[in-house]
Amino acid sequence: MKVEFYRHALGEEEIASVVETLHSVFLTAGPKTRAFEAAFAEYLGVRRAVGFSSCTSALWLTLRALGIGPGDEVITTPLTFIATANAIIEAGGTPVFVDVEPTTGNLDAERVAAAITARTKAILPVHLYGQMCDMRRLRLLADQHGLALIEDAAHCVEGERDGVRPGQLGDAACFSFYATKNLCAGEGGAVATNREELAERLLLCRSHGMNKAAADRHHGLYQHWDMVCLGQKANMFDIQAALLLPQLPKIAHHWQRRCAIAAAYESAFAGLSGVTLHHAPRDSRHARHLFTILVPAESRDRFLAQLQEAGVGCTVNYRAIHLLTYYRERFGWQRGSFPNAESIGDRTLSLPLWVGLQEHEIQHVIASVRACHAGIDLG
Ligand SMILES: *Cc1c(COP(=O)(O)O)cnc(C)c1O
Hints:
This protein has 14 helices and twelve strands. The strands form three sheets. The chain has a seven-stranded mixed beta sheet, with helices on both faces. The chain has 379 residues and is of the alpha/beta class. β4, α6 and β5 form a beta-alpha-beta unit.
């Protein structure tokens, strides 16, 4: 049996939506992109959403739009996908890693306070696996020190904590619609924000700084446009938006299905000695993007190998990124710099968690993990 790590749930509705768009005049950012932006903002309970080509471009252009550049420090987590920290460097800033909470893997607000310097301009938390960071604490800190607060919400479309959802307390939240994310367009991203003027600036930044978008230029008679700032080319386009639009009404249903799978895993693994599960923060709704377990560091790679041999797709989210060659060489980080992130990075592995998983496939994942566990040397 082969259980893929991930399979998308795109079906006839999404295909029909794309076909309809292909029959229309507009393929780039046009009516579908606008409709998606409006519907996504409404879903999230924020004023505006702006579509991007990826979460990566959304992150670095948001940083830039908020004025972050050379000499500016941005506090973030070393336990994330490289895109988070790379975006800071791409914007010209300096990533300052702060260690994570051992229980959740999320940026530790306590340590963030201690890392703020005169050069700090922003905090960039990541809602890891779909568990929200403590946004109320982080907002308070950001306000006390006059910092921007930008959320990497690539895992967290459905998340909520203390009555707050991504984009509601942050200046902006960046989302990914990459091939394996909860909303999937193959590639794509968006920024959610309550700040109208930031949304307007992002529309410029994603399109060369042109003050008239292609859709404006197409409707009605030709009008001269101006370039008012230096922008990039990173807009969402209508074929992506056509794929995303039919997925929005299914978010809650898909989330419930992933919650049920996660619950099955949790009850199956709760009693396994040496296997640790993350506990979601209280008063929170876990977006259930990834299901991870922690196993002893010395057996993690054997777990990965054996699970894959048993036909269970699995992966690692993430090994601590300050230990990757580029980050070590450029910033001088080493083992021991961020022990909590390293400990999770050395022990974590991610199991299949997707809407279409069948009951026998879930049972196969569980049985395979148990079989690996039977071989653990618990010392
Ligand atoms: C997937 C991901 C990104 C990057 O998203 P892209 O849309 O591929 O650019 C950024 N941050 C995190 C935490 C991610 O998981």
